[in-house]
Amino acid sequence: MSKIILTGDRPTGRLHVGHYVGSLRRRVELQNSGMFDKIYIMIADAQALTDNAENPEKVRQNIVEVALDYLSCGLDPAKSTLFIQSQLPELCELSFYYMNLVTVSRLQRNPTVKAEIQMRNFEASIPVGFFTYPISQAADITAFKATTVPVGEDQLPMIEQTKEIVRKFNSVYGDTLVEPEVLLPDNKACLRLPGIDGKAKMSKSLNNCIYLSDTEEDVRKKVMSMFTDPNHLQVSDPGRVEGNPVFIYLDAFCKDDMFAEYLPDYANLDELKAHYTRGGLGDVKVKKFLNNVLQEELAPIRARRKEWEKQIPAVYDILKEGSRVAREAASQTLDDVKKSMKINYFEDNALITEQAQKYQNV
Ligand code: TRP
């Protein structure tokens, strides 16, 4: 069986380092591993509209931002198909048929939907489109017969819902769709990188993100303002590394060889943590190190972005061509689905003959 990746992001803002360690970095590795037959990366504008219906301009503006972030991280249009969700009407058609296979109560139990309803104060006024977006996400994934979905932990319930829809579809209509596997980051710190204020989630509205497109100076300022252990007041005080954003970021980003370069008094992160825990290591020193670590990872991304920013029409061309290629794949799956559901009437000669015989006009 071919190995196929499908994943994507909502274009509601520039991508941040949480997206990067949670999924983006992995996607680039998977792309370059050569282990996958097809890789589809989707800008989920239609999904973004499910809770931004009154703000379409935000979505419209951010499509190119997300595309620039993708390209600058190293997603390569020669190896991965980058496309825009709304340009594939087949996804809507698939969603429409899948809707018959999912109950309202099952959607209400979807933990991501539940949490988002709370976060957005939707309560009873939840838009139907938003409520049903897990179904549309199942369409996104299954349209490409994706086997592998590299995403952050928050997307787990979506993949679970997709698997259920696949199993239900296949049991009702016969083997047609492929059950996807989720691929989570292997490092715990990458599962959910906190904001620089220590809040569990990085979010634009909380103003606690480090963006991939931030300048060197922005990154430095944000790192130096990061929350640490609130009880670590004096350098000599023992500090806590658990739940300490600065150390969580180091867990996500730092490699041993970076110590030799930027902090040669320590061989690795364990030694640095031990000193911090013991007392005698100041926050500023750790933050300066984190800044160097982050800058090393972000500098090449920033440089590639600068290049792509000079070729915006070419970026749209990449998305256009990607959308064309992706649409062909989705259209093939839709044909398979319609055939399994036996709603491909005009290609179904047996049906035509059967009906003709019933009326004895053959
Ligand atoms: N829900 C994802 C997010 O909020 C975006 C997305 C839409 C997606 N469809 C998808 C991710 C299919 C993986 C697979 O970022």
Summarize, please:
The protein is mostly helical and 362 residues long.
Description:
The protein has 362 residues and is mainly α. It contains 17 helices and five strands. The protein has helices at residues 17-33, 45-49, 56-73, 89-98, 104-109, 111-119, 128-131, 133-142, 156-173, 188-191, 216-224, 245-253, 257-262, 269-278, 283-309, 312-340, 349-358; strands at residues 4-9, 38-43, 81-84, 148-150, 181-183. Helix 1 (17-33) links the parallel strand 1 (4-9) and strand 2 (38-43). The longest helix has 29 residues, at 312-340. The model has no long low-confidence stretch (mean pLDDT 95). Tryptophan binds next to strand 1 and helix 8.
Give the key terms.
Tyrosyl-Transfer RNA Synthetase; mainly alpha; 5 strands; binds tryptophan; about 350 residues; Rossmann fold; about 55% helix
